[in-house]
């Protein structure tokens, strides 16, 4: 469907459904109006109860925001929630004042007020937007949406699909379980839920056609759930990570997606007409589940043999760090419970051993970076952990001394991931969210070219809120 057709269809749908008619984008412009407000959604399927959510434009996820690379965008966000909010345009390299961190880069948007975000996205790719105020609860109640910055020269595919994945903790009644900010969880894996949705719904099937080539944009919008996706009978080729093109490559078996990460893959649909193939998330081993199924149309293939058009995307204008002169700095991740795993400690395992490594039991922060704990969503008055002269090349050496996984996110920049545990990282990968396994050491480089105070934090929301956050300053 053309851009126009898509937008018209969705606005008339919203109007028909009696929802706020806020997805207003003047034809041919990069302008949106987005309303954050309570809504209801049918997450678990038609015969299941509805859920009270907080939503952008009345839908979970919110409407995909489509922008054009290098063209000014204007996004008006109106807050009709009963509490403060902001929007963070995750992964987009934008001016500091547009970054959406309350207290640090802008005042919070009060209930009833709005805020105008204006920036020109330098990079094409798959990004997303979410609140940076009361983040754990606001994201956990549904506030999230995709941002797609279109390439001038996209890869040739038959269809461009978006899967925004989200993880919910639902009660039998369909309501979202309260208890956001449980200190015990915060010191472990964070709030991992019990229901995963694909574009806001429990997914049965994704319809495909033999012979077609699909670009699939994967976004992990979970609070805490890490995903490892396996496509039975298919070999997805990774073409971009966190919105940044990489050398196209097949991932051995599964696509690893930490919270807030994005991976763009190309799938050649070479399955048999009429057959179904499972897409499984088996990150937590024994707790693996079927995310959806690729359901092949029984019709004959749309072409005899797969396309052999090239899969490489044009590179974005990222400054290449000069590794010879780069400043090198250690950032050590500390805290949390001893012993990793999913919810280790919850099932009566909370012995003295488990408690020992945890800093949070007395009500203090659970996590730290270089011995310092910044808590909440971001605020002013915290000395930056590091200050860089604008234009300097920087290598961060991220050391995970904890027993838990952490997707570490840097605002305002994208980092070239150089090595993991001493081994060079192939395929020229740039990331804004680097997933760290327990005890991992990762070297990541960037040019500190974007002036301002930038958050660096774990994107497991409970970890961020309880101390795994700091500020890097570019002057
Ligand atoms: Cu997507 Cu500071 O976060
Ligand atoms: Cu973390």
Automatic annotation (TrEMBL):
Enzyme Commission (EC) number: 1.10.3.2
SUPFAM superfamilies: Cupredoxins
Claim: Oxidoreductase is one of the keywords in the record: yes
Residues in coiled coil: none
Gene Ontology molecular function: any one: hydroquinone:oxygen oxidoreductase activity
Domain of life of the source: Bacteria
Gene Ontology CC, one term: outer membrane-bounded periplasmic space
Pfam families according to UniProt: Cu-oxidase (PF00394), Cu-oxidase_2 (PF07731), Cu-oxidase_3 (PF07732)
Leader sequence segment: 1-26
Keywords: Metal-binding, Oxidoreductase, Plasmid, Signal
Enzyme class: oxidoreductase
UniProt domain Plastocyanin-like: residue ranges: 47-152, 161-280, 381-474
Metal-binding is among the record's keywords: yes
Protein name: Multicopper oxidase protein
